[in-house]
Specification:
The structure is a single chain. The chain is of the alpha+beta class and 428 residues long. It has one domain: Anthranilate synthase (4-Layer Sandwich). The protein has eleven helices and 20 strands. The chain has helices spanning 12-23, 63-74, 87-90, 134-142, 163-179, 200-211, 257-269, 271-289, 328-335, 346-356, 409-427, and strands at 2-8, 28-33, 46-58, 78-82, 106-118, 121-127, 158-159, 184-193, 216-221, 224-228, 233-238, 241-245, 247-252, 298-307, 311-321, 343-344, 367-371, 377-380, 385-389, 394-403. The protein has a 20-stranded antiparallel β-sheet that branches. Helix 2 runs antiparallel to helix 9 (328-335) and helix 6 crosses helix 11 (409-427).
Length: 428
């Protein structure tokens, strides 16, 4: 079905830039970059998929079943996303909040052309119908001279809710906690701009450069863009092994090495942050157990501290072995959305989130990733990301934090501003 060719790349970082420039001519693009971040579970340093041979895009109604049929019919590489609002397909939930972006709830495409980079080894996988274009494409890519980004128009974003409203909503969430309806929930707020004109590629390059996360994504579906600098993995499948790595716990980075190290130590020992992380770890363990072989769910690492360009994060790693009676889509349906973006108990948290937040989440806190022909997959969690509808000229990014009984609303607001800093600096 696909023709593979192999190349040795002299300068992988330059080649990644060239790939991304070359990809801009296509209607559908998925560019996934690990930024060489050291991690235990990884197949490729960089992946590019372009030009849909077939695609699936739909709202949440029967979305997982549609995806299952699509994945089982194609038995090929698929790239795309699951929006947060697919919760409405797997549970009796609703999304009625304002939506300025108007993205499909689910989008996947079967690319004609795929590039897989690991170290300095490139593998290309082209469908037979276009394999005669491979050599010419490779020549075109390697002769591209990436241009230094010129300053583009700045975009002034505004908060969907002000600080006063944010504090009120967090206090309402805590009332639900005190009543025992939930233990923890992720509360998010949107920053947006109307009549926004940006160069998506330039903004992605800037965002990726200042963040250098392990799950960066440039995604294009015609005139809809995701520019993502997310550090978080939702779920990965390797054979029968499943790996989930929720993030809960954030600390600011400092230029002074002593202060920076102290921030790490303080985060590692902070009882509130640890309680948040452990609660979500338990939730993910429970989610994975629904499709796991008996006794196979393990916490591989609890509350590990990982440093990124902007922040330190507390990350846990939970693994399981998948029961063969379930399909790969069943696994996604029964674990989605990621627990770190919902709360515990999960369904109650999602109902309260819908009541208190002002914006439909859409792709924010959803997941982007890919399926292989063998049925393996790897998906991130869409945070630290800019979403842009070029046709509507609507730009949006959201940030959030976990609210518990111990949360101080003012501090949670400051955490949101810290998380928003990278996106704002890129846009403004």
């Amino acid at each position: 079905m696909r023709v593979s060719e192999f190349y040795t790349i002299d300068n992988p970082s330059l080649f990644k830039e060239q790939l991304l420039y070359w990809a801009q001519q296509f209607r559908e693009v998925a560019f996934l970059d690990s930024n060489s971040y050291p991690q235990a579970y990884s197949s490729y340093d960089c992946m590019l998929a372009v030009d849909a041979f077939t695609l699936l895009q739909t709202d949440y109604h029967n979305a997982f079943e549609d995806l299952k049929q699509y994945q089982q019919t194609t038995k090929d590489w698929l790239f795309g996303y699951l929006s947060y609002d697919l919760k409405n397909d797997s549970e009796r939930l609703q999304s009625n909040n304002f939506d300025g972006l108007d993205f499909p709830d689910l989008f996947f495409f079967q690319p004609k052309k795929i590039f897989l980079l690991k170290g300095n080894q490139l593998e290309t996988r082209y469908l037979h119908l276009c394999d005669d274009e491979l050599q010419e494409d490779y020549q075109d890519i390697t002769t591209i001279v990436p241009q230094q980004s010129t300053a583009s128009d700045s975009v002034m974003v505004q908060a969907r809710i002000d600080q006063k409203k944010y504090l009120e909503q967090v206090q309402k969430m805590q009332e639900y906690i005190h009543k025992g309806d939930i233990y923890e929930a992720n509360f998010c707020m949107e920053f947006y701009a109307e009549n926004a004109t940006i160069q998506p590629l330039e903004k992605f390059q800037k965002l990726n450069a200042i963040s250098q996360p392990p799950f960066a994504v440039f995604l294009k579906n015609n005139q809809q863009y995701l520019l993502s600098a997310t550090p978080e993995r939702y779920l990965r499948k390797e054979g029968e092994d499943l790996i989930s790595q929720p993030i809960k716990g954030t600390a600011k980075r400092y230029e002074d090495p002593v202060a920076d190290e102290k921030a790490k130590e303080d985060l590692a020992s902070n009882p509130k942050e640890r309680a948040e992380n452990i609660m979500i770890t338990d939730l993910v363990r429970n989610d994975l157990s629904r499709t796991a072989q008996k006794g196979s769910v393990q916490v591989e690492e609890l509350c590990g501290i990982y440093s990124f360009m902007q922040v330190h994060q507390m990350i846990s790693t939970i693994t399981s072995k998948m029961d063969e009676k379930y399909s790969v889509i069943d696994v996604l349906r029964l674990t989605f959305p990621m627990g770190s973006m919902t709360g515990a108990p999960k369904i109650s948290a999602m109902k309260i989130i819908e009541e208190l937040e002002a914006t439909k989440r859409g792709l924010y806190s959803g997941a982007v990733g890919y399926f292989t022909p063998e049925g393996d997959f790897d998906f991130n969690v869409v945070i630290r990301s800019i979403l842009y509808n070029q046709k509507k000229q609507y730009l949006s990014f959201s940030v959030g934090s976990a609210i518990t009984a111990l949360s101080v609303p003012e501090q949670e607001y400051e955490e949101c501003l810290l998380k928003a800093k990278a996106m704002k600096s890129v846009l403004e």
